[in-house]
Amino acid sequence: MLPLSNAQITQIFQRAQSDFKRSDYFAALAAFEQLRQALPKAPEPLFHLGRTYFALGRLQRARSVFEQARALAPGEEQVLIQLARTYARLGEREAALDAHDDRIKKTSGSLAAYMDKALTLQQFGAFEEAEQIFRKVYGQARKSGEFFRIWFAGRKFTSSQDKALKAALSLWKSPALAPKERLNLGFALAKAMEDLQQYDAVFRYLDRANADQRTLAPFDPEEHRARLQDMVNSAPEEKIARRGTSDFAPIIVTGMPRSGTTLIEQILAAHPQVRASGELAKARLLTYLTFGPAGHVPPISTADVETLDLFAERYAAASRETAQGDAPRITDKSIGNYLVLGHIAAAMPKAHVIVVRRDPRDVALSIYKNHFALGTHRYANSLDTIAAQMAGFEEAVRFWKGRVPLTEVSYDDLTANPEGQTRALIQAAGLDWDDACLDHTAGQSAVTTLSIAQVREPIHRRSTGGWRRYEAQMQPFIEAWEAGP
After folding, report:
1. 429-481 pLDDT, tens per residue?
2. Are 134 and 235 contained in the same domain?
3. Domain count, the chain
């Protein structure tokens, strides 16, 4: 390859950055790779190449190029942040913690670096180790609502005299607290009040937290309606022809957030032939990158076999690199998969789809009282928009029934009859029975969803019917849900 001039390098870099921002990741990948070859001693092209691989779910490749960037620029904070995130996503605990420790040294012990390390420890179930970090940095963090939210998520309150809780309550009274900090603190205090069974106080904090989040990240219901219409337009035929030639057989676990999808995935992943990829969140992205952009996806019936196989190949690569191991089956519990089940079924004839159900009132309560990253799940900050989003999900499930093979599983039935329902689940996934599936907590790796604590416990029914404690506060959801679309 001929050397590139400085002007050409600048032009390619600007184009690559623009492609990345537009989520045109394959174009960005090619451009950043060109820059890497032109500047083999520069860490920046490697960093951006790693970010692009990460966005595509190619985590092993992302890890490799981030490690190369680290070797060229030891201690570079942004590289360490991305590398720690990649290691954790791959289940490589010690490597992730090592990257966090390097970052802590580089930043002279910044609060953000310590908090990220503590969160990683929580994700691996090391709550006591995380607790030690939270206590260590308490002095510099006591004015941060986010600090209290992350801390309180991994601990169980048993006394209203807890010093950390008193500090959080004192901070809540501060008129100078910024809205973003207040919303984080509100979710933290709501969780603590529920731990202490002070149920009358829970919604006092939840309503304010969700109101602040609603202001900072407004919900546009038309966007979800557009995605549903895109789904309908792309699959007009009564039954999706499973035309792809791929042997890849993912187990697609889909449902509303907080419906039990993480538990279902962990039970499946206890099977020796299964590995979990968690919320891979790549099927929708790859659908748009392979078949057409959102809002302009052509009918599935018009896709040729080569395009279907390309989609399957891209999806399988992301799944395998995220789940690692050599297990023949991989789970994907990404929430948004329900919008592209037709493309999955058409391209991967051996895929199994499992739809998880739970009492909608419990689902709505859990969504409302949990913090989602700002700008994601925007509907989650109002009980009536939660009802509308759930109605859209139900509409999608009804649409796919008969078009793609799917099995519906009840979280409530599972918690009432763990062994019987687990056996039915394993059969629905096309697997032979294995007794290991009766202990989903054995050998767990990192859990990066909101269920970091709950999913590490044996199956229980403590949260079933929990909405009844807040029946009066839940009326906006109940009325909207019963009224229907």
Report:
1. 999 999 999 987 765 555 555 445 454 455 555 678 899 999 999 999 999 99
2. no
3. 2
**CA-based nearest residue to 260, from 418, 375, 151:** 418
Sign of CA dihedral 138, 144, 145, 150: negative
pLDDT at 4: 86
Cβ-contact 382, 327 below 8 angstroms: no
CA dist 49 and 405 (Å) reads: 37
Q: Is 379:386 a contact under the CB 8 Å cutoff?
A: yes
Q: Is residue 71 part of a domain?
A: yes
Helix H or strand E encompassing 332: strand 329-332
Q: Determine what percent of the chain is predicted with pLDDT higher than 70.
A: 95
Q: State how far the Cα of 50 lies from the Cα of 33, in Å rounded to an integer.
A: 10
Residues 6+ apart with CB under 8 A from 447: 123, 125, 262, 266, 278, 455, 456
Distance CA(115)–CA(49), nearest Å, equals 26
404: DSSP letter: B
CATH number for the domain that contains residue 116 = 1.25.40.10
The per-residue pLDDT for range 297-308, each reduced to its tens digit, is 999 999 999 999
152's tokens: 């309180």
What single string gives the DSSP state of each residue in 209-262? HHHHHHHHS---HHHHHHHHHHHHHH--SSS-----------EEEE-STTSSHH
Report pLDDT for 3.
Answer: 81
Boundary of a domain, candidates 96, 111, 138: 138
| Domain boundaries, position 110 | 1-138
User: For residues 333 and 457, which has the higher predicted lDDT (pLDDT)?
Assistant: 333
Residues 436 and 271: their CA atoms lie apart, in Å, by: 6
Q: Is the dihedral of CA 134, 138, 140, 142 positive or negative?
A: positive
Q: Structure pTM?
A: 0.91
* Residue 61: C-alpha distances to residues 52, 317, 435 (Å): 10, 11, 35
Rg of the chain taking only CA atoms, in angstroms: 23
Same domain? For 407 and 307 the reply is yes
Query: Looking at 115, 138, 161, which one is the last position of a domain?
Result: 138
Q: Is residue 82 part of a domain?
A: yes
Distance between CA atoms of 188 and 153, rounded to whole angstroms?
7
In a domain? residue 50: yes
Question: Does 461 lie in the same domain as 347?
Answer: yes
- Co-location of 328 and 430 in the same domain: yes
How far is the C-alpha of 110 from the C-alpha of 113, rounded, in Å? 5
Query: What is the structure's pLDDT at 456?
Result: 44
